[in-house]
Amino acid sequence: MIEGTTSHPSGEDVRMRGFSRRTTVEAALAWLDARLETLQSEPVPLSEAAGRVLAGNVQSQVDVPGFDRAMMDGYAVVAADTLGASAYNRLPLEIVGQVLPGQPLDRAIKKGQAARIMTGAPLPEGADAVLPAELTEADGGRVYARGELSPGKHVGKQGEDISAEAVVLAASRRLRPQDIGVLSSIGVAQVEVVRRPRVRLVVTGDELLPPGSTPRGCQIADSNSPMLAALVGRDGGVAVSSGIVPDQPEAILAAMRDEADIILVSGGSSVGQEDYAPRLLAQHGELAIHGVAMRPSSPAGMGQLDGRLVILLPGNPVSCLCAYDFFAGRAIRALAGRDKDWPHRRVKLPLSRKLVSVVGRVDYARVKLEGKSVQPLAISGASVLTSTTRADGFVIIPANSEGQPEGTEVEVLLYD
Q1: What are the φ and ψ backbone dihedral angles of 143, each rounded to 5 degrees?
Q2: Which of 8, 78, 103, 319 is 20 to 30 A off residue 407, Cα-Cα?
Q3: What gap in Å lies between CA 260 and CA 91, rounded to an integer?
Q4: Beta strand segments in 282-345, E
Q5: What is the pLDDT of residues 129-149, one digit of tens each?
Q6: Are the C-beta atoms of residues 397 and 366 closer than 8 Å to each other?
Q7: What's the half-sphere exposure (Cβ side, CA atoms, 13 Å) at 65?
Q8: Is pLDDT above 70 for 216?
Q9: Which one is predicted more confidently, 346 or 218?
Q10: 101-125 core/surface letters (b: 16 or more CB in 10 A; e: else)
């Protein structure tokens, strides 16, 4: 058990008692990190590899380019034949052919000769430079050089971009579109990437209607499952859900026993009469943490069931988002082979007014950017999801701080 847990592995029922102690965020993260390992690899076609994480180094088996090639339109020549050439001293060369991309010349270039060549075409044998068209004057079967060249000028050398046996992309790299292009250029049609974690969403609540439903009476539309599915996708996982799970212990336990890589339970994680998830996890697995010294999201918890990581997220939408960002997202990114750290872009700006907190807990404060300053919006209000849509990002206030006065420069993690 982690210090601050209010439930016991024996399955002691702590509902309707409140949290007597809470685990620190640091201790919760330490417990989580100790149980995170990158998933095994799987092969995927190159067309499906963008955004995936490389499972190992990719080594080229070929040179790119595989031949010396022209970098400009002009004439393939022997550089020494242009020595002394200028607009006032034109030097004649015999045109002996034309080289197009993918169509090499069937003869070598000798002293005093030249071949028309297009950008990207293979440099003929014997030639060692390309004379740009603007430095020439053609006259029938001859071309006149009007400028000097050094050997290798305007020539892309074999292996200049990638050499055979070189490591082109290193393991743990998240593949970008340009990376896909490079892999294709060395003949890779299939690549080994880290398997995307399968994330089971267990959203509970008899008061919930399916996502997108019009609220009626005392029932509300489920906002957590579509939000969580989008977050899981952002962090490299695949969200799986079978709909809203009723507030019945048997149904919740069955859903938590899904054969996924990680289980996220949203709702039923606190100490209310129908908050069954913590007790079920304690009875049938391990409830290592229940109650975290943070706001919002203090009812968050985590443990293991059937060898799988289970993270308990509060049902209130902002608390759910906060707990996901602190714990679940970190776990999913680690399983997916990504950096565990926050995926948000960060900026540092001064506060437009005081940001208040309480010593002893970590606060997740939503803020808005106004010009070149940061305006605090809210710390409390865990059920007001629109506080996150009005916000540009959030500020994490450490547990040892009472907040920050107006004008203090703070780091904002941006929602975009």
Answers
A1: -130, 140
A2: 319
A3: 75
A4: 286-290, 294-295, 301-305, 308-313
A5: 999 999 999 988 999 999 999
A6: no
A7: 15
A8: yes
A9: 346
A10: eeeebeeebeeebbbbbeebbbbbe
Instruction: Determine contact, residues 191/51, Cβ cutoff 8 Å.
Output: no
pTM for this predicted structure: 0.84
**Residue 289: both structure tokens together:** 């943490």
Cα 13 to Cα 243: distance, rounded to the nearest angstrom: 27
Mean pLDDT check: name the lowest of 40-44, 153-157, 186-190, 353-357.
353-357
**Which CATH class name applies to 25-39+196-335?**
alpha beta
Q: Where are the beta strands (DSSP E) in 294-402?
A: 294-295, 301-305, 308-313, 346-350, 355-356, 362-370, 373-378, 393-397
Give domain 41-64+160-194's CATH number out of 3.40.50.1860, 2.40.50.140, 3.90.105.10, 2.60.40.10.
3.90.105.10
The residue to which tokens 């499952």 are assigned: 225
Is 410 within 8 Å of 370 (Cβ atoms)?
Answer: no
Alpha helices, H only, 45-176: none
Structure tokens given for 344: 């948000």
Q: For residue 169, what are its two tokens?
A: 């992309």
Q: What is the mean pLDDT of residues 300-321?
A: 94
